[in-house]
Amino acid sequence: MTPEQSPLGKASSYTEQYDATLLFPIPRIGAREQIGIGAQLPFFGTDIWNAYELSWLNARGKPQIAIATFFIPADSPNIVESKSFKLYLGSFAQTKFDSADEVRDVLKRDVSAASGASVSVKLDQPGAFGKIAFEEFDGLSIDRLDLDAEVYHPDPTLLNAAHEESPVEETLVSNLLKSNCPVTGQPDWGSVQIHYVGPQIDQAGLLRYIISFRNHTGFHEQCAERIFMDILRECKPDRLAVYARYTRRGGLDINPFRTNFNMPMPDNARLARQ
Length: 274
What we know:
This protein has 274 residues and is α+β, with helices and mostly antiparallel strands. It has two domains: 3-131, GTP cyclohydrolase I, C-terminal domain/NADPH-dependent 7-cyano-7-deazaguanine reductase, N-terminal domain (GTP Cyclohydrolase I, domain 2), CATH 3.30.1130; 140-259, 2-Layer Sandwich (GTP Cyclohydrolase I, domain 2), CATH 3.30.1130. The protein has helices spanning 29-34, 82-90, 100-115, 203-211, 220-235, and strands at residues 25-27, 44-57, 63-73, 78-80, 120-124, 140-141, 161-162, 168-180, 187-198, 200-201, 239-246, 252-259. An eight-stranded mixed β-sheet has the order 5-3-2-12-11-9-8-6. Strand 11 and strand 12 (252-259) form a beta hairpin.
């Protein structure tokens, strides 16, 4: 159950016959312990996965296509390794199903079993493709700042806030998030939205902190949780929400959302880069 044991970064044989055993779960606990998260989670939220390369055969053998969206609870014990997810979805290609509802039910059952929690699944078929929303993050872009950056591994000491001044509520966004796959070293490109209530966060320090992930290795979900925890500890907001959206790789994009207060769930609108 470690990334090294997964299919990630290895030559793979592709099957087009349905095979649920291809899904490879990785426990969240190890990465969480490294950043000081215990059994009592300081946040709740979800990981939103969008799968753009899903196809199967109907009962008469005609290919069907859909975009699948998975909502995996942040308190699930496992994440699912992304290459195994792709191999699993690819196994539907030459498999007959009676209906899209049957496909959705199978996806829900299998991904729920792998993640260890109840997963919601939504299928958009071609007639709905034109209704999929595109929009950019709301908030003030900190990428506008003209500054020097020299740190390329996560450094929470770059963060600071005006603790002696009145609290503020604001939303800050950046498109300069980059991290790397912990097994293959491939780059993962992302955007991040940070909404908080509390001491005003120094924007230059926050941007340098986000840039500091540039040579960091970690799965998408783990990077989002590290950002959440570092801001929570260093800036001490009363309320905090972190939402990261990564560009797709292998037909999948992964979008972790973490918050410590009740707010509407993100609408899963696709960013232009996705």
